[in-house]
Design a protein that fits this description.
Blueprint lengths: L2 H12 L9 H11 L3 H13 L27 E6 L14 H6 L2 E10 L3 E2 L3 H10 L3 E7 L7 H10 L14 E3 L17 H19 L4 E4 L1 H8 L10 E4 L22 E5 L7 E5 L3 H9 L10 E6 L8 E5 L5 E4 L11 E4 L5 E8 L8 E6 L4 E4 L11 E4 L6 E8 L8 E6 L4 E4 L11 E4 L7 E4 L11 E4 L5 E4 L16 E3 L9 E4 L11 E4 L4 E5 L14 E4 L6 E8 L8 E6 L4 E4 L11 E4 L5 E6 L11 E5 L4 E4 L16 E4 L8 E6 L8 E5 L5 E6 L5 E8 L7 E6 L8 E5 L5 E4 L14 E3 L9 E3 L12 E4 L5 E4 L13 E5 L1
Parallel strand pairs: 1-2, 2-4, 4-5, 5-6, 6-7, 7-8
Antiparallel strand pairs: 1-9, 2-3, 8-9, 10-11, 11-12, 12-13, 14-15, 15-16, 16-17, 18-19, 19-20, 20-21, 22-23, 23-24, 24-25, 26-27, 27-28, 28-49, 29-48, 30-31, 31-32, 32-33, 34-35, 35-36, 36-37, 38-39, 39-40, 40-41, 42-43, 43-44, 44-45, 46-47, 47-48
Helix pairs in contact: 6-7
Length: 823
């Protein structure tokens, strides 16, 4: 159709009311249902005939996305609505009751003014005046039909018909409603326009609004439409966002899904059917911030909740949390002593005036945990705890000026004087120390550190490493976590904290905030809480930098590709690149090499041999002939033992090993396991440990020539283990260790002693959690992530592989995370 034909058809389709914000998709669906009826088809044919439009050019139906049932739920915040002529019915006298909407909490509204170039809301003036009369902040919106005229033309049409703006603090910026095409006959959901055409149209509209009113428009849209029809454009990330996102029936949403380019939202349309007339919306901030937004005054919005950990507020021996929600209500979350929190109890209102909360501990020295709060005007307030999960009336303890700090941290008694202290970090990375006076007030500040701008989050974690001095945990933008161990020394530049020490794995940027929560699982060690942007909590139990498991949480490092291997071994660095590798044999007898990547994973296997199905065991024995390259031992089905000297090179023409040499006569079939255990006896040569089905263990001392030496029995009872694996120097004491998995799923370490009298291995020590029976093989030794510590690999029957990074029993100071609820 031509533009003129589209405009003519649009006027007929618009009728008296035109489209309604948020109803584009619904209107498409309803029209699709109507056109299934012969009468509707006849009516459309007549319309097209009158307009002299070829029936075939009216775009065929497109498949619509199913609509979601709506609920009457509303999120916390300043409530509002949007209306159009759809909310007016002269025949029945139905109209928007503005007093009633105000009574039920609505404080702002967007009123439809225009659509395309062919529709003006006949009730715009009435609705706009009604909202103004009750005191609402109000604005106008335009429903875009971009395939019938230019963005410039529609912007001018909007402004000329009531869609302007003024900086009076009562008028919201002009709103562009760009969403699903509501008119099935005018094209697909994207108006038969390409993403680049849609983006260009929005830019044209926006530039004209800015030129006419002095302000960019806000954009109303939905994430899914934006993705499909703009190609996830990020060109408008600086524009105010009015986003549509409805929860499924019976559910709520913590926050809306955002279109590409935006990281936050101003207004959220959360329901098309109540609790307010028209569509229901919520403003992302306070009422004062809404007026600032309307006036286009620069304001720093305090959109997120604030959470602090003051200590044991209700005197039950468990540390608690307080959270300030965006609506200003303050809530108490009692700690449950198991890392989580009980049901929240509201303990105050009006706290939206504060932009920071600090759990200050017993800041006034009376044994009840207290709270510090920074007002939006920069003043510091002290709230004394009562010991009954509440606070006394606030007292101003600091004049304006505290807004200079990007972070305020209740860090504990940093200088060892028995009183709780406060740290403030500026955006330039300068840190100031405020000694506590034990009265609820701060002493004279001292510059304590510089360069801390490298961290994007800081948390006071009390004594995290068990040395008696309070510490901090700091996160860098790359997601790494660092411990700043307190020294307990008087404050002076560089003296309060030791050198940063990296702790934890990567990925900590997933959390919106980190919070030291003291000992919330009652194990005598201080813990850490991660708060996700959606309010979920992740609890990390502190270990005081000592790890009973000897390993970090597992990481999947392979798909199901290891299912086809009957034997897998870890020979160490087999190709000379200083990374630990794997070798596996398939059922067809082919031998495969998987090069380590130094990160716990491996490259795709490459074939390095055939005919290996004659062997019943393959063993990585390290540098068994003392030539600087790692070697293999293989036990043939007839019980003979064969040595394959490694070459240190695996290429397309080199298999990585020399021709085999027989190094043991028949008889090796008596052993259920052969282990390349490292230098067990401390003579500087690689040894072999062999286990019999009766549980006896035998040491074959290495000779450094590729052949096993004379054997000696070194113990019994090894049949208690379902599987035993060589672990190298797993605990960092420079002796070779073994790990054993039992049938009940427990994992045990037998630390090497180097002493024949002690049986070469110490008594078993349980490590790791339970559940190890899920693995069909354990693989070691090898430093698979190149961090200087021996690691462990495990495979399941389905062929998936998991990597456990060794810690030498000193770790990140954190046990594996656990879900701890939601704020």
């Amino acid at each position: 159709m031509s533009q003129a034909e589209k405009l003519a058809l649009l006027e007929k389709l618009q009728g008296e009311d035109g489209a309604q914000m948020g109803k584009g998709l619904q209107m498409r669906q309803e029209r699709a249902e109507e056109l299934k009826e012969p009468a509707a088809q006849e009516e459309l044919a007549e319309t097209l005939q009158v307009l002299d439009i070829d029936r075939t050019t009216a775009v065929a139906q497109s498949v619509a996305v199913p609509m979601v049932d709506r609920t009457m739920w509303q999120p916390d915040g300043i409530q509002g609505l949007d209306v159009s002529s759809h909310q007016e019915d002269p025949e029945t006298g139905t109209s928007v009751n503005w007093q009633d909407e105000w009574k039920h909490g609505a404080r702002f509204v967007y009123v439809k003014t225009t659509e395309a170039l062919s529709y003006k809301n006949p009730y715009f003036s009435k609705q706009h005046a009604g909202a103004t009369g009750v005191g609402m902040v109000r604005g106008a919106y335009h429903f875009a039909i971009p395939n019938v005229s230019s963005g410039r033309a529609q912007a001018n049409y909007m402004v000329d018909n009531g869609g302007g703006w003024s900086a009076d603090g009562k008028t919201l910026p002009p709103l562009l409603d760009i969403e699903w095409n509501p008119y099935l006959e005018l094209g697909n959901a994207c108006y038969n326009m390409s993403p680049s055409q849609i983006v260009a149209w929005i830019k044209d509209f926006s530039a004209t609004i800015k030129a006419r009113t002095g302000r960019l428009p806000a954009i109303y849209t939905a994430a899914s439409w934006w993705k499909d029809c703009t190609g996830s454009s990020t060109a408008f990330k600086g524009y105010p966002l009015h986003v549509a996102n409805y929860p499924s029936p019976g559910y709520t949403l913590a926050k809306p899904a955002l279109p590409a380019g935006w990281t936050d939202w101003e207004i959220w349309q959360y329901s098309p059917s109540g609790p307010y007339a028209g569509d229901s919306n919520v403003w992302h901030g306070t009422m004062a911030e809404l007026r600032d937004f309307a006036a286009n005054r620069t304001v720093t919005y305090n959109h997120s909740s604030l959470t602090a950990s003051p200590g044991d507020m209700d005197r039950d021996g468990r540390p608690d949390l307080v959270t300030r929600l965006p609506d200003g209500n303050l809530w108490f979350y009692p700690g449950n002593g198991a890392g989580g929190y009980g049901a929240a109890v509201r303990i105050g209102g009006g706290w939206q005036v504060f932009n920071a909360l600090v759990g200050a501990g017993t800041y006034d020295g009376d044994a009840y945990p207290d709270l510090l709060a920074r007002h939006s005007d920069g003043a510091l307030w002290f709230y004394a705890g009562t010991g009954k999960a509440s606070f006394k009336a606030g007292v101003r303890v600091g004049a304006s000026g505290w807004n200079v700090f990007a972070d305020l941290i209740g860090a504990g008694d940093l200088n060892g004087d028995g009183r709780r202290d406060l740290l403030g970090r500026k955006a330039d990375g300068t840190v100031y120390f405020y000694p506590g006076l034990g009265t609820g007030r701060t002493g004279t500040r001292v510059a304590a550190a510089t360069g801390w701008q490298v961290y994007d989050s800081l948390a006071g974690v009390q004594d995290f490493n068990g040395d008696g001095a309070p510490d901090l945990v700091a996160r860098k933008p790359d997601g790494s976590l660092w411990l700043l161990a307190g020294t307990g020394k008087p404050a002076a530049p560089g003296s309060l904290f030791g050198a940063p020490r990296r702790i934890g794995a990567s990925g900590w940027q997933a959390f919106d905030r980190l919070l030291g929560v003291m000992d919330n699982n009652r194990d005598g060690k201080n813990d850490l809480l991660g708060i996700y942007p959606d309010g979920r909590l992740a609890f990390y139990a502190g270990t005081q930098m000592r790890d009973w498991s000897g390993m970090k949480p597992r990481v999947a490092v392979g798909g199901s590709g290891w299912a086809g291997f009957t034997l897998v071994l870890a020979p160490g660095d087999f190709n000379g690149d200083s990374k630990a590798d794997l070798i596996g044999r398939k059922t067809d007898g082919t031998l495969w090499f998987a090069a380590g990547n130094g990160k716990g994973g491996h490259a795709a296997p490459v074939r390095i041999g055939r005919g290996w199905n004659i062997y019943t065991a393959l063993v990585g024995v390290g540098d068994y002939n003392a030539d600087g390259k790692n070697d293999l031992l293989a036990r043939q089905s007839d019980g003979t033992l064969w040595f394959y000297a490694g070459t240190g090179s695996v290429t397309s023409s080199q298999e990585g090993y020399r021709a085999r040499v027989k190094v043991g006569n028949s008889g090796w079939n008596q052993f259920s396991s052969l282990l390349g255990a490292g230098d067990v006896d401390g003579n500087g040569r690689q040894d072999l440990v062999a286990l019999r089905p009766d549980g006896s263990a035998w040491l074959y001392s290495g000779q450094g020539n590729g052949r096993p030496g004379t054997r000696s029995q070194i113990g019994g009872g090894w049949n208690a283990y379902r599987q035993v694996v060589a672990a190298g120097d797993y605990d960092g004491d420079r002796r070779a260790d073994l790990l054993g998995g039992k049938a009940d799923g427990t994992l045990w370490m037998r630390s090497g002693t180097g002493s024949t009298a002690a049986g070469m291995f110490a008594a078993e020590k349980r490590i790791g959690s339970s559940g190890w029976q899920q693995y069909n093989r354990l693989l070691g030794p090898g430093d698979f992530n190149n961090d200087g510590k021996v690691d462990l690999l495990a495979t399941k029957a389905d062929g998936s592989m998991y990597f456990y990074a060794g810690t030498r029993f000193t770790n990140s100071g954190l046990a594996a995370r656990a879900a701890a609820g939601r704020l």
